Amino acid sequence: MPKSTANITEMMKKLRAITEWFESQEEIDVEKGIEKVKEGAELIKASKERLKELENEFEDVKKKLGDND
């Protein structure tokens, strides 16, 4: 997922869907479960990166406004 187009809301929806998948399974297929865990880990990593980018953007806006608190 490219950083510039990463959308936190969409990533959270996908993570929620993964969680719901696990909760809805009576018996979890281990291989499918591993795929879901890997997907979730990638989404978490991308979310962290995007949040850091947004934090940096916010800091830039603060600097432009002259609010250095």
TrEMBL record:
InterPro entries in alphabetical order: Exonuc_VII_S, Exonuc_VII_ssu_sf
A single GO molecular function term of this UniProt record: exodeoxyribonuclease VII activity
Keyword Secreted: no
Keyword annotations: Coiled coil, Cytoplasm, Exonuclease, Hydrolase, Nuclease
Coiled-coil intervals, chain numbering: 37-64
GO biological process: DNA catabolic process
Gene Ontology CC terms, in alphabetical order: exodeoxyribonuclease VII complex
UniProt similarity note: Belongs to the XseB family.
Protein name: Uncharacterized protein
Organism: Candidatus Lloydbacteria bacterium RIFCSPHIGHO2_01_FULL_49_22
Source lineage: Bacteria, Candidatus Lloydiibacteriota
